[in-house]
Design a protein that fits this description.
Blueprint (H helix, E strand, L loop, with lengths): L1 E7 L3 H14 L2 E7 L4 H12 L4 E4 L3 H14 L2 E12 L2 E8 L4 E7 L4 E5 L48 E5 L6 H15 L2 E4 L1 H5 L20 E5 L5 H4 L7 E6 L6 H4 L2 E4 L2 H16 L1
Parallel strand pairs: 1-2, 1-3, 3-7, 4-7, 8-9, 8-10, 10-11, 11-12
Antiparallel strand pairs: 4-5, 5-6
The protein binds flavin-adenine dinucleotide.
Length: 287
């Protein structure tokens, strides 16, 4: 039984999660690292590197979502995405994923080998990646033969933890009322908590915050220990992104807001009253 975990240059936290998942499957685990991503060369290199493997694990990122189904097809295997659990049962690989916006779970048995699976961030406890960084795949120099080519990359420097890997998230919705609320009220709170900032789609679509902050069905799937949902109504599409959050705390003026059904703690009040008080308490704790 051989598992291969596929890593990209920068995603070390994700790599540890994949190593954790591979550990639960048992068998021997090999890790490969793609350092210079172009889809066709990466795919060709992976086909060679993954031949003979039973399971190939990817993290939850755009490259993985692009590569995983193609790799499964080339190797004659089967593919499943967005897994929150993976198990070997009677020699077959079973992947659990959430359906209906996190209200139910589906268990999928992958009957062809290899099982190529991408897993949601923070679904597994971190484990040692071993010598992954020592096995970069040779993907350079084959780009000319590609039918498609990335002609330009615009890199935004990530100085903070990825939202998917964040332990504490302060998230705002349309009820924040504008970019000023995010900047002047929520960001200082996030700084005090050492948290990442996120938002509902309504707030992102309004242009108040970057689209990369969006959490939900069509945004990022997060799994923090604490998710602070401020002025977010809790629509099912938003909840689909936070179903793995360990604790949800909601602040909303509407006592009937659906978010309260999912929240461990809730405060019914105007966030402009509550957030400054929270900040004051946290600042006093820190001084
Ligand atoms: P609203 O629904 O407008 O809620 C604002 C909340 O703020 C209300 O509950 C209100 O009581 C509260 N409020 C107002 N003022 C204050 C105040 N001063 N203090 C405290 N509380 C206050 N949404 C996502 O978030 N992520 C997705 O990925 C996503 N994907 C979607 C995909 C599809 C196909 C579709 C159809 C929709 C999707 N949506 C998604 C949109 C989703 O349905 C909701 O419209 C959206 O989540 C609502 O955002 P909101 O809760 O911020 O805004």
């Amino acid at each position: 039984m051989t598992n291969v975990i596929v890593l990209f240059a920068e995603a070390d936290r994700a790599a540890q999660g994949l190593a954790g998942a591979a550990e639960t499957l048992g068998g021997e685990t090999r890790a490969v690292r793609i350092t210079d991503y172009q889809i066709e060369p990466a795919l060709n290199a992976l086909v060679d590197a993954c031949r003979g493997a039973d399971v190939v694990l990817f993290a939850n990122d755009t490259y993985s979502q692009e590569l995983a189904p193609r790799l499964a097809h080339r190797l004659g295997g089967a593919c499943a995405g967005d897994g929150i659990d993976i198990q070997r049962v009677d020699g077959k690989i079973r992947v659990t994923r959430q359906v209906y916006g996190g209200k139910a779970q589906a268990v999928i048995e992958l009957r062809r080998s290899p099982a190529v699976v991408w897993l949601r961030a923070r679904s597994f406890p971190a484990s040692d990646v071993g010598q992954a960084s020592a096995c970069p795949l040779a993907t350079k120099g084959q780009a000319e033969a590609c039918p498609t080519l990335i002609v330009e990359r615009n890199t935004s420097t990530q100085t903070t933890t990825r939202l998917e890997d964040a332990n504490v998230i302060v998230s705002g919705g349309r009820g924040i009322g504008g970019p000023e609320g995010f900047r002047d009220e929520l960001q200082p709170l996030a700084d005090l908590l050492g948290a990442q900032m996120a938002a509902s789609r309504a707030a992102c679509d309004a242009g108040w915050v970057p689209p990369t902050w969006q959490v939900g069905q069509t945004g990022k799937k997060v799994a923090p220990a604490l998710y602070l949902a401020i002025a977010i109504t809790g629509a099912s599409q938003h909840m689909a992104g936070i179903s793995e959050a360990k604790n949800i705390v909601a602040i909303n003026i509407d006592p009937d807001a659906p978010i309260f059904k999912h929240a461990r703690f809730g405060i019914v009040d105007d966030y402009r009253k509550v957030v400054p008080q929270l900040r004051e308490k946290l600042a006093r704790r820190d001084s």
